[in-house]
Structures are given as C-alpha cells and as structure tokens.
Design goal:
Low-confidence stretches: 1-12, 439-453
Largest sheet: 8 strands, mixed
CATH topology of the largest domain: Beta Polymerase, domain 2
Structural class: alpha+beta
Mean pLDDT: 89
CATH superfamily of the largest domain: Beta Polymerase, domain 2
Bound molecules: adenosine-5'-triphosphate, magnesium ion
Shape: elongated
CATH architecture of the largest domain: 2-Layer Sandwich
CATH class of the largest domain: Alpha Beta
Strand content: 5-15%
Number of strands: 12
Length: 453
C-alpha cells in the first residue's frame, strides 16, 4: 500500500533523514552561472582555506525554482572569528544568532556557522518560559544544522566542493510538489519561534506554494504567540511581507491564517467592521500599487505602506474622539494619529523617521480640499506633496475621495506657472444680491471638508 506523504511525514524523526540524499550535479538544475559572483567568491575562499562551505535556504530554493534569490546564505564549519579573519569586508553581528556579514558594495553575503539544536551546552542557549529561543550559539555539524531550518525546502545545501545538493528532509520532493512543510513538530517549532508562522504566510505568498496540512493546522491557535515577539523584529518581518513585491497576496494569506490581526490589530478591526468593503478595497489597491513599484524597481517607503494600513483606523478614531470630546477636526485627527501610531508601535516598531512624515502626509489629505490662495498653492512645494498626491489618487480610485478633486490636482501640476497662478487665484466675490427671505434654505451636507465617503 502506498503511504501518502502527508501521513508519512507526521513525526519529526521521520522527517530528517539520518543521512542526506545527495543529488549529483547532472541530476539537478542549480547552475553556478546563476549564483551571484560575490556568493561564489565567499564560498571559494572558505573552501580554499580548508573549510566546508554551502549555500542554504532561499538561495538554493529560489535557484531550483528558476527565480533569482533575494539574498544568499552561506553556511560553513568555520567559526565567526575565523570567517572574519578571512575577509577584509566582514563584520560580525547579532547576539541572538552570531553571524558574519561579508559586504560587497550593496550586496551582503551572510555567513553562518553550522549550529546544533542538541540540548546541553545550555550556557550558549537561552529559552524563554514559552519555549521561545532567545539566544543560540551552540556550534555543530551540517547534520545538526538542518534541525534549525524552518521548512524542508529551505534545508537544501549546495556544496561548493562538488556542486552536489544535500537533501536532509525530502525538500526536493516538496520543491516538486510546491509545498511548504515545517521540519519537526510544527507546534514546537512555532513555539520556539512564532515568526515562522509569518514566514509560512510570506513564503507561500511569494512562491505560490501550498502549506502542508500539519504545518498549517496549528497556526490559528498559536498566532497569539506573536505578541511575545519583539516589536523591532515584527517590524522587519512586516517589511519583508509587504515590500518584497508580494504584498497583496501576503495580506490574503495572513488573513486566511488569522495572523493579520496580530500584526495590525487596529486595521483588522476596521476591516472587520466595514460593511461597504471600501477599507479592504483601499488596502488592496495600496498594496497592489506597492507591488507594481517593487516590480518596476521604483523606491517604496514604510511611510506610505503604514499610511495605507492605518488610514481608516486613524479616521475612525478621529471621528470617535470628536464625538466624545468635541473640539476641532484637526485636533481630533492629530490625536487619533498619535493614538493609532502609538498602538501600532507596540506590535511593529515603526521608526519615527517614517511615522512623522506619514502624519504630515495624512494631514495633507484634508488640505487638498482647499484649492484657492497662496496656502493651497504652497502645497505643491511641500516635501510630502508627491506622496500625499499619490495617496489621494489611491483614495479616489477606491471611492474614498472625489475623483474630480484628484483630477484637478493632477492637472494643476501640468500648468505653466502663470496658468497655475490663475488656477489657485482667489475669486473675487461679488456682493451677494439681495434675495427674498422666502427663498433662503439651510445648506445641506456640512462643510465639504470632511473625508469624502
Ligand atoms: P527570502 O530570502 O526569499 O525572503 P529565505 O528563506 O531565504 O527567504 P531568509 O530570511 O533569507 O529567508 O533566511 C535564510 C534561511 O535561514 C532560511 O531559508 C531558513 O533556512 C533559515 N531561517 C530563517 N529564518 C528562520 C526561522 N525563523 N526559523 C528557522 N529557520 C530560519
Ligand atoms: Mg534569503
């Protein structure tokens, strides 16, 4: 009887083979000509100096899939200090995981010493009560290193000594069936590092892989463990989720697995309460826009990303503050910004150098309604104008701002200076003619300065 892979790989022991399957060069498609020259330099140097050297992780995985890797991870038996001694352009970093960065201009090759996950040597490993690994500097062999990798497809080792690939966890099968499968017992692995849940969502979005049943099942229940992860790390992971060209599909994976509410609690609440669907439409449009920019190699900024994600929670909070305390619209909006950004920072530590301009940019959304006079004209020179204008276009696209207003601001930028002056000119008001009392009616709809609905 054939045992399905799903059943066969239930237990951790089944998953990591005692000896790896070694795939010789003719039997695989990973060609050195596709590997970054800098990664090769590092590998060859390590080898020449008598060390083992492999590419592992996303580099191998992506090359086998015909993609170009975002970065390269090299593993070696050389200790971090030995690696540093070999490369002039090398820096040791990290306390949690001590590793070497070898820098070539903008490219950084990460060089990591094999680690062991064996117990013992507890001096060099620290666990939180929850089982989360805090520090892990126990060096080991390649056979042990495999246990600290997350998914089977990330545990393929390309050996520079003979160009073979070592497969310890049937990762090649999972590449072929496009499956993300955690090595070992999923619950234990998520407890050790809850970020692995986000990595499952992110990599399945990026690669279009399915997540194996046992790997997916505990996520809903364990997602809450993300609250123990430092906000700085979740911020980094958020950027990987939303600024690597797969933001829109990352969002749907995060929602599908109940992870999004642990990253953006206020946004998740706005999404949950929204009956019209405009919040989701707006966020998706913003993320699609970011994805298009990444593909076109245009710059993207966390300022805009967080603005897209926090815009509705901020507005809703502003409305709440206003209805509770009265006060001006602007004051309520500023208070709401502080409240929501402050809360968001507790989960993902958005640096102030992004949150301050974000606030300015969001405030400008109100100012776009005023098209007359020098103050309105000066908006064009504002350092946040470009971003704020893009944001207005996005809102208009989703029915959250008046398309005519967006068109006006588009056109006014194309005018020659003189014409531009005229466009912003304050129209002289003629004296109102006297009307007969009977024809006066109250004006409906308020000031027109609220956010278009
Ligand atoms: P990409 O670089 O495309 O985002 P990646 O899988 O290479 O994906 P990296 O963050 O570059 O991700 O990590 C490199 C490798 O390190 C992974 O492939 C995996 O083997 C290992 N790794 C990274 N983060 C974790 C983690 N949280 N738990 C276990 N292993 C991890
Ligand atoms: Mg990588």
């Amino acid at each position: 009887m054939r045992v399905s892979a799903e059943t066969a790989l239930n237990t951790a022991e089944d998953q990591v083979l005692a000896a790896p399957v070694v795939i010789r060069r003719p039997q695989h498609t990973l060609s050195r000509s596709n590997v970054s020259g800098n990664a090769l330099k590092v590998l060859y140097r390590l080898k020449r100096c008598g060390h083992q050297a492999f590419i592992v992780g996303g580099g191998v995985r992506d090359l086998l899939l015909g993609l170009s890797p975002k970065d390269y991870d090299v593993v070696t038996d050389a200790r971090p200090e030995q690696v540093r001694a070999l490369f002039r352009n090398c820096r040791l970093i990290g306390r949690r995981f001590r590793l070497a960065h070898v820098r070539f201009g903008r490219e950084v090759i990460e060089v990591v010493t094999f680690r062991s996950s064996q117990s013992g040597a507890e001096d060099d490993r620290e666990h939180a009560d929850s089982g989360r690994i805090l520090r892990d500097n126990v060096y080991g062999t390649i056979d042990e290193d495999v246990w600290r990798r997350d998914f089977t497809v990330n545990a393929l080792y390309y050996n520079i000594a003979d160009f073979t690939i070592r497969d310890y966890a049937r990762g090649m099968d999972d590449i072929a069936s496009r499956t993300l499968r955690l090595i070992g017992d999923p619950e234990t692995r998520y407890r050790e590092d809850p970020v692995r849940m986000l990595r499952a969502a992110r990599l399945s979005a990026k690669l279009g892989f399915r997540i194996a049943k046992h790997t997916a099942r505990p996520i809903g229940e364990m997602a809450v463990l993300l609250q123990d992860v430092p906000a700085a790390r979740l911020y980094d992971e958020t950027l990987k989720l939303f600024q690597a060209g797969h933001a829109a599909s990352s969002l749907s994976r995060l929602q599908q697995f109940g992870l999004f509410e642990h990253l953006f609690p206020d946004t998740a609440r706005s999404l949950g309460a929204d009956k019209s669907g405009v919040v989701l439409k707006f966020i998706q449009a913003g993320l699609n826009n970011t994805d298009r920019r990444v593909k076109a190699e245009k710059p993207v900024t966390p300022m805009f990303l967080f603005a897209v994600l926090l815009w509705f929670p901020i507005r809703e909070t502003a409305e709440r503050i206003r209805s509770e305390d009265g006060g001006s619209e602007i004051e309520a909006f500023l208070d709401a910004c502080d409240e929501i950004v402050g809360e968001q920072r507790e989960t993902t530590a958005l640096p102030r150098r992004f949150s301050s301009p974000m606030k300015e940019m969001l405030l400008m959304q109100r100012r776009f309604h005023n098209r007359r006079g020098a103050r309105a004209r000066r908006l064009l020179q504002h350092r946040q104008f470009r971003a704020a204008y893009d944001f207005l276009l996005l809102r208009a696209e989703c029915g959250d701002a008046d398309p005519e207003l967006a068109r006006w601001w588009t056109e006014v930028q194309t005018l020659a200076p003189e014409e531009q002056h005229k466009a912003f000119a304050v129209k002289r008001r003629r004296r109102p003619r006297r009307r007969r009392r009977a024809s006066r009616r109250p004006v409906a709809g308020g000031s027109g300065h609220g956010q278009a609905g």
